Fold this sequence. Notes:
Oligomer: single chain
Number of strands: 12
Strand order of the largest sheet: 3-2-1-4-5-6
Number of helices: 14
Strand content: 5-15%
Structural class: alpha/beta
Amino acid sequence: MAPARVLYVTISMDLGGTERQLLELAAGLDRSRFEPSICCLRGAGALAGECASRDIPITAFGAPGAVRPAGLAASRDFLSLVFSLAGLMKRERPAIVHGMLPAAWVAAGLAARLSGVPVLVTGRRCLGHYKDRRPLLRHLENAVNRWTDAVVPNSAAVRDDTLARERIAPGKVRVIHNGVRIPDAPPGAGWRGGAGAGTTGPAVALVANFFPYKGHMDFLDAAAEVLRGCRSASFVLGGGGKLRPEIGRRASAPDLAGRAILLGSRPDGGDVMALSDVAALASHEEGFPNVVLEAMARARPVVATRVGGVPEAVEDGVTGILVPPRDAGAMAGALLRLLRDPRLAAEMGARGMERVRRDFTVDRMVRAHEDLYAELLARAATRRHET
Length: 387
């Protein structure tokens, strides 16, 4: 029997957590059973070359970073994407379409309906606050939900939020947590040999793009408090985005005294954390952040805000410390506790690595998707025989 074609639909394959997970999923599928390809609605992105090297075909509509239309033109642009996507599906005849991000899975669902794809899977990878002022998107989501075969959130928190916000049968929902790899070898000099050359004291890393909800300003306020009790500490921020000038101004303020290092957008975020002593997450909301798994996979303790699916990854007091969001004082206290007690930090880091090895590997994530796909294909075959 020929392998079942699986078409993944996303916005782009740029640097990001969802994109990395998609790359690992598509590359890890058993090629004797499944034949993956990816369609990007807004340009291929920075990971396109890695996709090609791992034998994953990409089709890209548009160009990354292109100015998107607004108003009525945006609706026409979206409809054009749906029809282009439906044409691609009719040509490639996938057995499964899996839409990954909000606008992408809505477009994928509409196109799959138009082109008669047997199995439709849609992902949920964040909490749904972004939909509060987008009624049209909510209506389209609920329409697509009626013929979706399975919805895959990446945490129980995202599942619960999805069921609360959308009209969807609970039996269609299957939680599959993200998966990461435990590195085979230690990192090279990394940031300590570049922007951080000469930094010898303990370091705290926060790797996240500069979006408002990621809490970078809270983290830097916490850093300033930590420095009152640990003057040799450094604070490393890896990421890019529109807030960089504002964050840069805060990082250069007198109370941080040159102890905050902005590395920019990095493909080696895991190594940035591996070369630090503690990993931090200051987000105000999250679905299920890869960054905490990446830190745990490198035996680093995590200080993170207790939001969304974070407690499903970080066991408070076991693999890290959870603090309330927007509370710089609580974060500073947790960071100081670990920086002052390297033995406790090492124990938490070791337990975090074991937790990843047990519960959050790439292989586990891929096998869970394969099991779901096989189950849905069997159901589709039964429906065809019954009709």
